[in-house]
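Posting for a labmate who doesn't have an account.
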Amino acid sequence: MEQFQGLDYKIAYKRIVESKTNQEIADDLGYSHQYIKERWLKIKTYTEHTEPIAKT
């Protein structure tokens, strides 16, 4: 997660650590659900090609 910065870090943190949904993240950060969904898909795609993220 430390490779992310700014909004991507916030989204990744809220999804992975806080286990929030895209809608909850959108509400927290003031973005649309669709925008958060698209950013999360890009983040997931990036992480699939790098080191695995610890899953609980």
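Reply:
Got it, the structure tokens are right above this. The radius of gyration is 11 Å.
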